């Protein structure tokens, strides 16, 4: 029996489909991702397709790795040549090869949200835009939306007509793009936009990739935007050796799981697939393999309330399972407390392990209370999307040095570090350099190189010169063949005096900054160890493309907590969806939107995504009282709970002793207005958890060591753990290293390993 015999007839049809466009449109858990994976394996194994000719696009890097591993298991050698990656990583690779044809250097920098904001602030200043009236963020949003729709600055201006505000936006977009290009930098949306631009303008580059990617697969197709669609359409329109367009494109998606409209996802990409790709074959998968009957029925009932959808019937052969449970808690604190206790009880009774559980919520902010409870109860957990290491000042500083070394045109990075550590270069000097750069149409860094020629800088030029020679020195080191890339961070720290300044500061905060920088070095070391050809640019790229979900590690036994958005495509035996209240989920923004029907439908799809993550047991909950933006709110249970027929729901009281009786009022279904109202805090006292302090034990969070254990650190060697404290988002582990003294480290980045 071959592995393909495990597929049902429709899945098999999709896997064995020969050539030409194929759309697999199917509900959650019906094996779409599995079909894509098997199809890749099948093409290699049975159709002699060269792995090199396959491009598979997934939604996260993590999903890409999983897909590659699975194919690897099936076909053995060769799978490493399949190009499996996200849209963004795909585009970076293409642009690194060909972007010079658009007038950029190949060593371009990728700007993150923070860099974008800094740049936009400069743009607004330059254009005299009153950011109180038109906030930078709203301009950036408009630009992002335009890029998703492939609208260029020129086109944007045309469309703005005589509208004053729109003209301001257009001017900002134009200037923002001009500066990005001058900085040899691309923002995230540019990665796709510029690749499309490249392909539209450069036949040779397009043909190269059309010939290379003879088979294209796209997972989670429902969340592609217009620019992404154009990209794959271009790639899939190659002409084969017989002069035909084969359109060997296979996409899988579920219109009911489209949850990224706010990021430009265009549902028409699915609905119009058959028009866009002539002779497309459409296969529907209707059997769900993931969930119990009760869970699947609940999902079907909820999503049936959406009007604008393709009718689908999803059924399962799986057992009926337990009813879906719904619990109405008094407060968000009680909700977190009870749920975490319940999970602990199940795990301690050996019915499941922690990594069988996921807690899902609508917004990241909801994770905090859970985290407090988990820490208090010594339950190992991992929060996806909560800790932003790369947003820390010291990390951004060091990265800015690295970026400057790679790409001197990156003005934002150069300006960030020109006076860090302090070199006596003040704002007045920076302004003069900047003016000179603008006037002469050169980069800020090039202007620094010519400091002596800048009028009014005769005296400060002597302060600028050492900076320039520092960068030049570092640049020539990394270009020498014998240079060990892992030493670059130390070289920066020493040459700039950055380390010395922090050491002299002597505060605990400075200590932590030093430690964080060394964690960045750890990341660099492991990058150098694993990359095929390690380069500084490659490292920066890896850092800028990490997504939160990539850090999830199933091999670790911890509960995962994440937003419903992050959970797309994943599955867990036990799922908790909390905060199912009007105003929380659906959120108040959707309820009060200009077009609430549409927004509520998007929230409902998100609910459908959430419910269908569960395999065995689904627990829904709401809290009557929830703290929101510092105020206590009373909320009614979500309309989505109301949409699940009562016979599928087991409504329990928090203490599980009596079945909770709803007052009819608890489920009033008025839509279009929020039912939340304020209660002053004196009316209601939540039960407050004491601040977590010091913890020992060997089973804390994602770490497997406790106080008194010996651990190993890449830089500091072995030491003894003397303290572990739960911080806001991570554990702070104090370790006494015989050679380096006592260090406080962030657990999630220190990569400490227990030594037996
Ligand atoms: N023919 C099959 N036999 C047994 N198990 C299957 C079969 N097809 C799929 N599965 C299993 O069902 C689960 C769901 O499959 P998969 O993740 O591919 O679904 P999906 O349609 O991609 O879901 P989602 O819409 O959530 O992305 C997986 O555990 C998968 O291994
Ligand atoms: Mg999937």
UniProtKB/TrEMBL annotation:
Boundaries of each UvrD-like helicase C-terminal domain copy? 293-569
Its catalytic activity?
Answer: Couples ATP hydrolysis with the unwinding of duplex DNA by translocating in the 3'-5' direction; ATP + H2O = ADP + phosphate + H(+)
Q: Which GO terms describe its biological process?
A: DNA replication; recombinational repair; response to radiation
- Span of domain UvrD-like helicase ATP-binding: 5-292
Give this protein's Gene Ontology molecular function annotations.
Answer: 3'-5' DNA helicase activity; ATP binding; ATP hydrolysis activity; DNA binding
Identify the enzyme class: isomerase
State the superkingdom. Answer: Bacteria
Query: What keywords are annotated for this sequence in UniProt?
Result: ATP-binding, DNA damage, DNA repair, DNA-binding, Helicase, Hydrolase, Isomerase, Nucleotide-binding
Keyword ATP-binding set for record: yes
The record's listing under Pfam families reads: PcrA_UvrD_tudor (PF21196), UvrD-helicase (PF00580), UvrD_C (PF13361)
Into which family does the record put it?
Belongs to the helicase family. UvrD subfamily.
Q: State what protein this is by name.
A: ATP-dependent DNA helicase
- Gene name on record? pcrA
